[in-house]
Specification:
Membrane topology: Multi-pass membrane protein
Protein name: Choline transporter-like protein
Organism: Bos indicus x Bos taurus
Distance between the termini: 33 Å
Radius of gyration: 33 Å
Number of strands: 5
Strand content: under 5%
GO cellular component, one term: apical plasma membrane
Strand order of the largest sheet: 1-3-2
Structural class: mainly alpha
Pfam families: Choline_transpo (PF04515)
């Protein structure tokens, strides 16, 4: 015990008893004021970037096609002309690449407006039956294609077909819309079922958490035992055949290693070691597993008392939607900032009379082109890169990306701190539910915004910098993928792995720091340090609770998402005859569409509910550890934990006065 006490003291001294402490401190002051001011200044700059993008940007460049003079089709003077016609579609389909379309829109080197006579090759020399796609006219794939010198009809038809396949999503979008119109209410029913299942699973954990956890643990042990048996059977068969790795040698065909006995022997040893470790943990850590189960039951009880917390993810989702939408609008306007530029262009610059014309130089599309060069015209090329917004475009985009990450991480931090404050109010209420505040969630929300915006911004900024570094590293890896050698790839992989681990650690540290901020109201650094020290003094309990909670929540998600997915599949495919007699099954073009939407919605709903429950478990766990260090069960220092936890730990409240006598 002496060595254990010394090890614990290496991570700080246990929390001391404070007679004035009765849960989340109400008399607190603002924390991390410098970071709060920095965050507000950054938000003002973010708003200024949005205004600048709004002034200089023009999203019509993306939404509407332009003709050769740069005029928009479908708006203004061309309101009655919504479609763009390519006079020579073959110059488009044979010279278009998808990267150029993504970066600059669909632009073809072909006359797009009748400005001069047919003799000057500015009118179409032939017409094909066409269909509109993204505001542009493209020929039908079954149209009769005229013979052109040097170009085969097959290549032209394939090019047109490929262009239509990549751009014309009109028919598919109409069918998808029809499917949603036929099945939207059934999708809502499926999502409602997912909500009910998630809520019931969490609320019923107070009754079935213990048996369910042990069933899941036994199930994992059973799966490992079957894996050991299967590996032994495969090993025995291959051993009798004499199949050895010495006969196979080294090969890059990994599937070939399935046919050698050493592969199955190695798998057998690994599974046997895992089985043994889990059995030993089940035997020697059974008390800590029981503590984890009791905390899960207590978390279910806390959610039952503060039901409003289950719907707080809707607030987080709405705020995240605002952050993402604002960034998307800024990115769109920044990408479309600039004035159109026009240059001289001719179908064949080598013809007589064209050698004196400076091709690809700027011109005015409103002026008539007088030249002896056949087919010379002033065509749209792109958008200028000069001007205040254009010169700083890259910097503004970087600022917007930083704003996206920082605001998203701040919103997530706000949700964690608010939920932690609400659930901490539950734990530190001695008489439950009498001592629980009237509006614990609302009080925690206002308290967090008023005092701890800076602390949340501080933690979110640290996480944002790591995430930005990961994005930059991924970008470098993508750019150097074709030219890098194996050593460079190994170094980049190591860096990416280190940053991934660092991000996970910071998320873990921030989460527990926000819990301590919600309880004690101290700044981010002090809260992070206290949370880390408290967890390190109880590291075994931390690991056991984390794994038990992960196993249980994974099973819950699997139950909710799998149940909704199976029911949706059987219903939308018409495989429930009895239900089809009562309700008419929707007639769908793509039956998988409502199934996938139902599954995705069920996953999001389950993730939202279980994230609240996970935050509740983590908050109660830290409060439980603080309770153990602060109190001793005496009349002056009674424990706040539930009777089940007291029973597991072999502790009890002694000589509690009548007004403090615990009520279950």
């Amino acid at each position: 015990m002496g060595e254990q006490d010394q090890d614990k003291e290496a991570y700080g001294k246990p929390a001391k008893y404070d007679p004035s402490f009765r849960g989340p401190i109400r008399n607190r002051s603002c924390t991390d004021i410098i970071c709060c001011v920095l965050f507000f200044l950054f938000i003002l700059g973010y708003i200024a970037v949005g205004i600048l993008a709004w002034v200089y940007g023009d999203p019509k460049q993306v939404l509407y096609p332009r003709n050769s003079t740069g005029a928009y089709c479908g708006i203004g003077e061309n309101k009655e002309k919504p479609y763009l016609l390519y006079f020579n579609i073959f110059s488009c389909v044979l010279n278009t690449n998808i990267i150029a379309i993504a970066q600059n829109g669909l632009k073809c080197p072909t006359p797009q407006q009748v400005l001069q006579s047919l003799q000057q090759e500015l009118c179409p020399s032939f017409l094909l039956p066409s269909t509109p796609a993204l505001g542009r006219c493209f020929p039908w794939t079954n149209s009769t294609v005229p013979e052109l010198p040097g170009i085969s009809n097959t290549s032209i038809s394939q090019s047109i077909s490929g262009l239509l396949d990549s751009l014309n999503a009109r028919d598919i979008s109409v069918k998808i819309f029809e499917d949603f119109a036929q099945s939207w209410y059934w999708i809502l029913i499926a999502l409602g079922l997912a909500l009910v299942l998630s809520l019931l699973f969490i609320l019923l954990l107070r009754l079935v958490a213990g048996p369910l956890v042990f069933v899941l643990i036994i199930g994992v042990l059973g799966v490992l035992a079957y894996g050991i048996y299967h590996c032994w059977e495969e090993y025995r068969v291959l051993r009798d055949k004499g199949a050895s790795i010495s006969q196979l040698g080294f090969t890059t065909n990994l599937s070939a290693y399935r046919n050698v006995q050493e592969t199955w022997l190695a798998a057998l040893i690994i599974l046997a070691v895992l089985e043994g470790v889990l059995l030993l943990m089940l035997i020697f850590l059974r008390q800590r597993i029981c503590i984890a189960i009791a905390l899960l039951k207590e978390a279910s009880r806390a959610v039952g008392y503060i039901m409003s917390t289950m719907f707080y993810p809707l607030v987080t989702f709405a705020l995240l939607l605002v952050c993402i939408a604002y960034w998307a609008i800024i990115a769109l306007f920044l990408a479309t900032s600039g004035q159109p530029q026009y240059v001289f262009w001719a179908p064949n610059s080598s013809l007589p009379g064209c050698e004196k014309v400076p091709m690809n130089t700027s011109c005015d599309p409103m002026e008539q082109v007088n030249s002896s060069c056949p087919g010379l015209m002033c065509v749209f090329q792109g958008y200028q890169s000069t001007g205040l917004a254009q010169r700083s475009l890259f910097n503004l985009q970087i600022y917007a990306v930083l704003g996206l990450f920082w605001t998203i991480n701040w919103v997530l931090a706000l949700g964690q701190c608010v939920l932690a404050g609400a659930f901490a109010s539950f734990y530190w209420a001695f008489h439950k539910p009498r001592d629980i505040p009237t509006f614990p969630l609302g009080s925690a929300f206002l308290r967090t915004l008023r005092y701890h915006t800076g602390s949340l911004a501080f933690g979110a900024l640290i996480l944002t910098l790591v995430q930005i570094a990961r994005v930059i590293l991924e970008y470098i890896d993508h750019k150097l993928r074709g030219a890098q050698n194996p050593l460079t790839r190994c170094i980049l992989c190591c860096f990416k792995c280190c940053l991934w681990c660092l991000e996970k650690f910071i998320k873990f540290l921030n989460r527990n720091a926000y819990i301590m901020i919600a309880i004690y109201g101290k700044n981010f650094c002090v809260s992070a340090k206290n949370a880390f020290m408290l967890l390190m003094r109880n590291i075994v309990r931390v690991v056991v609770l984390d794994k038990v909670t992960d196993l249980l929540l994974f099973f819950g998600k699997l139950l909710v998402v799998g149940g909704v997915g199976v029911l949706s599949f059987f219903f939308f495919t018409g495989r429930i005859p009895s239900l089809g007699k009562t309700f008419e099954n929707p007639q769908l073009n793509y039956y998988w569409l409502p199934i996938m939407v139902s599954i995705l919605g069920a996953y999001l709903i389950a993730s939202g509910f279980f994230s609240v429950f996970g935050m509740c478990v983590d908050t109660l766990f830290l409060c439980f550890l603080e309770d153990l260090e602060r109190n001793d069960g005496s009349a002056d220092r009674p424990y706040y934990m539930s009777k089940s936890l007291l029973k597991i730990l072999g502790k009890k409240n002694k000589g509690t006065p009548g007004d403090k006598k615990r009520k279950k």
